[in-house]
Amino acid sequence: MLEIKNLHAKVGDKEILRGINLTIKDGEIHALMGTNGAGKSTLSNVIVGNPSYEVTEGSITFNGQDLLSMSPEERAQKGVFMSFQAPVEIPGVSMTNFMRAAVNARREAQGKEPLKSTDFLKVMREKRKLVEIDQKLMNRSVNEGFSGGERKRNEIFQMAMLEPTFCILDETDSGLDVDALRIVAEGFNKLRTAETSAIVITHYQRLLDYIRPDFVHVLIDGKIVKTGTADLARLIEEKGFDWIKEELV
Amino acid sequence: MSEQENGQQNKPEKNELVRRIAEKKYEFGFTTDVHTEIIEKGLNEEVIRLISKKKDEPDWLLQFRLEAYRYWLTQVQPTWGHVHLPEIDYQAISYYADPTAKSKKGPQSVEEIDPELMKTFDKLGIPLEERLALSGTAVDAVMDSVSVKTTFKEKLSEKGIIFCSISEAVKNYPDLVKQYLGSVVPPKDNYFAALNSAVFSDGSFVYIPKNTRCPMELSTYFRINARNTGQFERTLIVCDEGSYVSYLEGCTAPMRDENQLHAAIVEIVVMDHAEVKYSTVQNWYPGDAEGRGGVLNLVTKRGDLRGVNSKLSWTQVETGSAITWKYPSCVLRGDNSQAEFYSVAVTNHYQEADTGTKMIHLGKNTRSTIISKGISAGKSQNSYRGLVRIGKQADGARNYSSCDSLLLGSQCGAHTFPYMDIHNNSATVEHEATTSKINEDQLFYCNQRGISTEEAVGLIVNGYAKEVINKLPMEFAVEAQKLLSVSLEGTVG
């Protein structure tokens, strides 16, 4: 369970989050919608511990533990995963070596032995099929020369490899065509267990047709101003955000 | 011609890539407690005569030394390198230290070697007992001024291959040594070459007879142990017509507060259709995090590609030394000869490296390739300096140079000094250079996948250096990879 209380955060001198309260129970999917610059990505980055963002007030606990006091890698090893909006290239580091380091870091944190090479490659093969990602990409450097769609698919592939219990999908649907969107979303659904919870950030209903949210939150100016069920997302698709803003006045 | 790039940037403290510079681990900093015969400090003709006498040398070699010494006296220490070479007090150094002095004639069998020396080389991963050796590798183990043991000598001699210390070669193969010694790097080549020619102690001698493929990797391991001594390595490799040899050198030294001098000469002669691969994994003590101590590594290495279709390839992984000043070079004399230089130089803390190569094209259709990867961290300075010269007669000569610099942090420097000197219009010379930094987004991406920053840097650096590391013999490539990660430990917070 992830519990966010009165969270304030800034980038440089600019305050972006102004008191977020959000509780996500195991197995729940929460969609996060809102205008550009409302703080959706800031919230995700703060949860995963990006050092460019500074928390000024509030707390986040994950399964009862203080998440904010952990390093980004500790958070990841505890099962927090983010599918990046714009995944970076890491020249010279092959996807295979990268994944091996990540999987074994997680195992080490759990007190497990590193995976044997043959076992690791077998797992890679299985998970690749799930998101229909080409073997060729695994021999390339991380994200180097990947198309936008391949990068997004690669994010979900990494999620499959790391088996997180809490995921953030930060605009995973952007840049995907209809077929790719279906593959990625269905891949995510197959990977989910009864415990997996997620924040899904999106501008569009179409992703939520596949990944059905239990709750939809609207973020404006660094605050959650409205919470509803899946119907709220459809309403936003239809009418935009202005009516919500008007309600606030 | 010079291109410079400094890692200066104005970013808030918390965003700096380098937030702490932790103590770097140096695994080989121990000393060996062994009876060592060290001659009095100081340098003069008497000392040179003494060294020559201790090694029981013929008169021609003594004269070679004395002539070099007299020339050296007329010269001054060069200052052109992009390094802060301290004033060296040559009278404060001892020029000969013999850790095998207990055994009278220099040890022949393993049983006669001081167990402490055996233990030392075991600890360094260089077992001197042949049955324990790395498969397919013969080793000449040199400590301070003396070769302790050369393995697989007998086995190699069955093929007519000579692999022994240079001292032994002077005794047993004086004609070969006399023919080639100083023929590639003359004693008057430069200041440190003159010094080495005057006082050189041990190193390896390799002769591969015609049409012979050396069945093992040959390697020399240099270890400095005694305090206040200098090590003056001298290595000579002759690869005769149609032959092949792969040679590797490694080096380590104890951790000490004062600088120690290692001034070496390596000469390689490659005849018609012959090929030599020379690899170095240099891990001399680099000094501490504040820049105290460390080895001054001042080295002249050169290969003479005398024969047609001859090949020479230098591969170096340089992670150690307080100051590195070396330019393994090739004279492409034979028509169609080919030379390569692959280098990874890592500097951290206050280390300074000025390294590169010279490719001198004299023969027709000669080809050379230069791949240099510099990695700087801490407050270090890392320079590539390279010369490509195409002579008048070198029709159709080609060179390709690629020099990349990777900066970790904002207080280190990377510099490139490429020189070109082209005297033939049919030449093709290409030079590419890049400078990059490991950026925070890349590190954070790794962190988010559970990979620590240090491990991420290791992955990225090894990826960056892969093109060079892949050129090393298998066993050493693995060692070199580990070394790269260890050398950069603690550079990013």
Q: Please, could you describe this protein's structure?
A:
The complex is a heterodimer of chains A (249) and B (493). In chain A, the strands form 3 sheets. A 6-stranded mixed sheet of chain A has the order 6-9-10-3-11-12, sandwiched between helices. Chain A has a 4-stranded antiparallel sheet with strand order 2-1-4-5, with helices on one face. Chain A has one domain: P-loop containing nucleotide triphosphate hydrolases (Rossmann fold). Chain A has 10 helices and 12 strands. The relative contact order of chain A is 0.17. In chain A, helix 4 packs across helix 6. With 249 residues, chain A is an alpha/beta fold. In chain B, strands 1, 6, 7, 9, 10, 12, 14, 16, 17, 19, 21 and 23 form a 12-stranded mixed sheet that branches. In chain B, strands 5-4-8-11-13-15-18-20-22-24 form a 10-stranded mixed sheet, covered by helices on one side. A two-stranded antiparallel ribbon of chain B has the order 2-3. Chain B is α/β, with parallel strands linked by helices. In chain B, helix 5 crosses helix 6. The N terminus of chain B is likely disordered. Chain B is 21% helix and 35% strand. Chain B has one domain.
Set out the fold topology.
The complex is a heterodimer of chains A (about 250) and B (about 500).
Chain A: E1 2-11, E2 14-24, E3 29-34, H1 40-48, E4 54-62, E5 65-66, H2 72-77, E6 80-83, E7 90-94, H3 95-109, H4 117-131, H5 135-139, E8 141-142, H6 148-162, E9 166-170, H7 178-191, E10 197-201, H8 205-210, E11 215-220, E12 223-228, H9 230-239, H10 242-248
Parallel strand pairs in A: 3-10, 3-11, 6-9, 9-10
Antiparallel strand pairs in A: 1-2, 1-4, 4-5, 7-8, 11-12
Helix pairs in contact in A: 4-6, 6-7
Chain B: E1 3-6, E2 37-38, H1 45-54, H2 59-73, E3 97-98, H3 115-123, E4 137-143, E5 146-150, H4 153-157, E6 162-165, H5 166-172, H6 174-180, H7 191-199, E7 204-208, E8 217-223, E9 230-231, E10 234-239, E11 244-252, E12 259-270, E13 275-282, E14 294-305, E15 311-318, E16 323-326, E17 329-332, E18 338-347, E19 352-361, E20 367-376, E21 381-390, E22 398-407, E23 413-422, E24 428-437, H8 440-448, H9 453-469, H10 474-487
Parallel strand pairs in B: 4-8, 7-10, 8-11, 9-12, 10-12, 11-13, 12-14, 13-15, 14-16, 14-17, 15-18, 16-19, 17-19, 18-20, 19-21, 20-22, 21-23, 22-24
Antiparallel strand pairs in B: 1-23, 2-3, 4-5, 6-7
Helix pairs in contact in B: 1-2, 2-7, 5-6, 9-10
